[in-house]
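thread: overnight batch results

M.L. [08:02]
morning all. the overnight job finished for the chain we discussed friday. pasting input first so we're all looking at the same thing
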Amino acid sequence: MWITQDEANVMFARYCRARFGKVAREQVRAKAKALKKRGDLDGFIVWSKVADEIEKLERSAAQPMRPTSVAAA
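M.L. [08:03]
and the structure it wrote out:
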């Protein structure tokens, strides 16, 4: 089974959150910036997409979960 680039970005974003915790987004953005500074635009794009995925994960984690109703049996 092959994974898409988008799926890989999500997987790596989850890894970075587990590895770096609350500073994951800043760590990943710093890596992207360093790559751009060295002229690696492809690397910059990929790491920026990972940082975007981290932001999405942070937003979804910040939203409270809705209670579910339990149907009477």
